[in-house]
């Protein structure tokens, strides 16, 4: 039986325009695809989770509800952050979810976020180079970054090995459920340069 808090939160996100129109069930299914991708590489739930560019809370709120792990929902838009904080005041909301508002490039160097997460998830964050650069510092060495991918079979070519090497990352693999995901492992500490200043990862990508 689906948690009433989760249903209420996602329906409110949809009403406010932070999720696409239509039923919330496809958003939940997509979120569970991230869990399936994680399970391909790890045998137990992550110790900590961050949803980068959380928007209306997908996939972070679904994963936090199902795994029960400490979770951060990070978004750059104050209006979306306020809504996420409001949902966490609803009855029966999980107590281990927090919201951080700001640019991913800046918050990555906060002491309580830098290298603190075993898993980072992203959906519709941006081009692969910018996404990888903005994500890398949040993840502990040995942790995973899971990114939702387009269904195009050529999408695997979007991830550039030399560019990922530069960030201390490597492709662990690709997972297809009803959606497609790339699983990236952090294999080395983040070089001090990354992420670069606000907007630079997108304007001057490491690869294109």
UniProtKB/TrEMBL annotation:
Pfam families hit by this protein: GidB
Keyword annotations: Cytoplasm, rRNA processing, Transferase
Cellular-component GO terms for this entry: cytosol
Keyword Transferase: yes
Signal peptide positions on this chain: none
InterPro entries with a match to the protein in the record: rRNA_ssu_MeTfrase_G, SAM-dependent_MTases_sf
GO MF entries: rRNA (guanine-N7-)-methyltransferase activity
Name listed for the protein in its UniProt record: Unannotated protein
């Amino acid at each position: 039986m689906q948690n009433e808090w989760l249903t209420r939160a996602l329906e409110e996100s949809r009403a406010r325009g932070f999720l696409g129109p239509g039923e919330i069930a496809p958003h939940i299914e997509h979120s569970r695809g991230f869990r399936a991708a994680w399970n391909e590489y790890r045998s137990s739930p992550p110790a900590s989770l961050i949803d980068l560019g959380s928007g209306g809370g997908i996939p972070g709120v679904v994963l936090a509800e199902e795994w029960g792990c400490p979770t951060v929902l990070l978004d750059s838009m104050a209006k979306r952050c306020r809504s996420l904080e409001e949902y966490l005041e609803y009855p029966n909301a999980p107590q281990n979810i927090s919201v951080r508002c700001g640019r991913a490039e800046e918050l990555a160097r906060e002491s309580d976020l830098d290298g603190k997460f075993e898993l980072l998830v992203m959906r519709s964050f941006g081009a692969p180079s910018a996404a990888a650069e903005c994500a890398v510092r949040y993840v502990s060495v040995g942790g995973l970054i899971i990114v939702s991918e387009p269904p195009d079979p050529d999408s695997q070519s979007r991830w550039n090995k030399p560019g990922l090497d530069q960030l201390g990352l490597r492709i662990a693999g690709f997972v297809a459920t009803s959606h497609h995901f790339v699983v990236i492992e952090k294999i080395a500490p983040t070089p001090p340069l990354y992420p670069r200043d606000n907007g630079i990862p997108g304007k001057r990508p490491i690869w294109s």
